[in-house]
Amino acid sequence: MKIGVCVKQVPAKDAPLAILEGGAWIRESDIGFETNEPDTFALEEALRLKEKHGGEVVAISMGPERAKQTIKEALAKGAERGIHVSDPDFFKLDPLASARSLAAAIQSENFDLILTGLQSDDQGFGQTGVLLAELLGRAHATIIMSIEVTGERMKLKRELEAGWFQWVELPLPAVLTIQSGINKPRYATLKGIMAAKKKEIVTVERATLGVPDARTQQVERIYIPQKTKKTEFITGSPKEAAAKLLEKLRHEARVL
Asked: What domains are there in the chain, each with its CATH number?
């Protein structure tokens, strides 16, 4: 099987975020970056499928030069090669423009299967994988918890709400978005890290792909929520106080 895995580089979870003037994005010079956690589950699932069925895994990431580190980490874990869609302003793209760029960059690869994480830890749109499938004309399914490949078809387990699951069948080729927790991602070994230095990473400039920059949505402002405290005394008889408390929990705190 020839499997492509989309891996995104996102700000580290413990990074102290500083907002750029205008509020459209964060100041990147002072923070660290890491691989998007949901994508690590997609990568692990791709590696397991390769080990079971043979083939190769290709790591794909879009972003500035630093995004290559995310690809190198995937190569160290077992991916055979990488594709870097280079664009320093990729954060300005909406999910549709991102999907169009990825589709244009990998169109000629003819992957049997493309895996993405369910969503990104930074923007969390959860749309890129599905849009990528539509643009490539592939079958697709989301929130995948299990993949069983038999010949040219797959049996998939999808997570629904309230503890329910759904089994579906899809033909190959396809695009799947993987739910976190489907597996336990591996760590890169020293041997894998050394081997990754010799593996190929092809860089494609996004500007050369002929993809329009028109956006269907735009981030107006990013801000850090302000924590506030408020104390309110409820007066009246026990019955009246209980009724007021219930009303506030239901309509103000929205915990009931």
From this structure: 2-208 (3.40.50.620)
